C-alpha cells in the first residue's frame, strides 16, 4: 500500500507540472498581463517597462514559471494587482465553493444512488424508462440553462428562494445552486448505479445471499450495493475537481462569491496571479481526489490489493 | 494494469468534457470482443456485418428516427434559415423591446426588440457549425494520435498518455475562459480550435484502447505473418474493427460541444454580438428574466432539443453497435 501511494504521488508530479505550465503559458503568452493594470487605456511604454520589471515579466517565461512555483511551495501565491494577497482571496472564496461542492456531492449520493438502485432493480419497468429518459434530458440541458430556469421558477415566479446568494453564502442559500451544479453529474450517477446494480443483480453472491434467506434490504444494501458502488465512487471522486472548476457557471448565475467568481473576475481583468494561483489549487484538488478514489477501491473491493 | 487502476481514467475522460463520456467508454471494452459478422446469417442466408446488423436495428428504433429527423431539420435550417423566416436576425426595433408573441412574430421580441423567432432559427447555424467542425477536428486528431500510440506502443504511447493526463486535469470551462478571453476575433474558428485542443485527448484515449484490443485479434496476426505492411494492417484490418467506439463517442461529444459553445458564449468569451448564437441570446435575455421570460425560454429550448437529439442519436447508435448491453 505504502509503495503504491508513493508511486502514485510520483506519477502526479509530471501531470501537475504539465497542467500548471499549460495554464501559465496560456495566461502569459496569450494575454498581456500588463494590459489590465492601466485600466481601459493603453499603458505608456515607460510605465509598462517599469511594471514588467517589477513583476519579473521581462524574464523568459520558463524562468517566471520556476520563480512562481518556487514561491507557491513556500505558501506565497503572489499579490493580485489590486494589492490583495491571492491567499487572502482564496481564504474567502474556497470555503464558499467547498460548501457548494459538498451540497452538490450530497445530492449526487443521496438522489443519484437511490434512483440508480430503484431503477436498477426494476429494469425495463415504467419507473426505469421514465427515470432514464429524465436523466437524458438533464444531461442534455446545459447547466446554465437549468440554473436560469430554476432561478426563474423558484426564485422569481414562486418566490421560494432568494434569486441570488448573499456574500456569506450559508448552507441553506446554497441548496438550489448545489442542485444545479450537481444536476448533470446526478444523472450520470443514476445511470452508472443503475447499470452496475442491474449487472451485479444476477451474480452468484447475490443468489447465495438470497438463498441464505437474508432479508431483501440487507441483500440490496450490504451485498449488492457495496459491490456496485465501485464505479460510482470513481465517478464521484473525479467529479470533485470537475464540480469545483465547473462552479464558474453556477456561481455566476446565482451571484455566489466563490472560486468561480474570483477566477472569472481574474480572467476578465487579466489578473495573472489570481488565475494561475486558483487553477494550481484546483489541479491539486483534482489530482488528490483521484488518488483518494484509487485508494478507496481497496476498501470497497477486497479483491484489489495494492502491493 | 489491474482492473481497479483502469477505471478512474475512464471516469476522468467522462467528466472533463461535461461528463458525457461514460455513455461511451464501455464500448472500448465490449465492442471489439464481438467478432465481425457475429449477427450470424441473416434471414436471406447472407452473413451480416456488424454495420448492416446495426443499421437494421437502427431503422426500427423510434429514438433513432426521431433524433435523426430533428438533426436533419437542424441541418436544413442552418443551411437555409431564410426558408422558414423572412426577416433578418439583426433587424431590431427598440420600440418593440420585450413584447410578447404577436402576429408574424410568434416568439415575441427580446430586450433589444429583435424578433426571437428569427434569432432562434439563425442561431442553429452557429451551433451546428461548431458541433460538426469541432467533432471532425477532434475525431481526426484524436483517433490518428490514439491509433498510432495504440498500434506502436513504446515511448510515444507513454508520452501521449501523460499528455492526455495533463489535459484532463484542466477544467474545460476554465481553460476556455483563459484562452478565449484574449481572442478578439468574432468567428466560430477560435471556439472550434479551443474545443479541438481540449477535446482530442478524450477521443485519443478511446481510439488507443480500441486499437490495442483490435490488434491482438488473430486475423491481424495472420495478416502480419503474411507480410502486410504496418499501414495496410492499420487501414485495412484494424481501423474498420476499431472505429465503432470512436463513432459513438464522437456523436455524443458533438452534443456536448454544442452545449460547450453555448456555455462559453453565455460567459461572454465564445462568440460575441453581433454574431447570432443561442448562448449569446440566453445571456442577453437573463437580465430581463422577470419581464420577458420568453426571450430566454425559446433559445434555451432550441439548445436543449439540439443537444438532446445528438446525445440520443449517439445512445441509439451505441445500443445498435453493442448488442451485449440489451
Q: How would you sum up this structure, described in words?
A:
Chain A is built from 11 helices and no strands. Chain A is mainly α and 307 residues long. The N and C termini of chain A lie close together (6 Å). Chain B has 326 residues and is mostly helical. Chain B has one domain: MetI-like fold. The longest helix of chain B has 38 residues. The relative contact order of chain B is 0.17. At the A-B interface, helix 1, helix 5, helix 6, helix 7 and helix 9 of A face helix 1, helix 6, helix 7, helix 10 and helix 12 of B.
Quick structural summary:
The complex is a heterodimer of chains A (307) and B (326). Chain A is mostly helical. Chain A has eleven helices and no strands.
Helical content band of chain B = 55-70%
Which secondary-structure class do the elements of chain A indicate? Answer: mainly alpha
Q: What percentage of amino acids of chain A are in beta strands? A: under 5%
Write down the CATH topology of chain B. Answer: MetI-like fold
Terminal residue distance of chain A:
6 Å
Terminus-to-terminus distance of chain B: 28 Å
Instruction: Please give the largest β-sheet of chain B.
Output: none
**Which term fits the overall shape of chain A?**
globular
**Low-pLDDT windows of residues of chain A:** none
Let me know the average pLDDT of chain B: 77
Structural class of chain B: mainly alpha
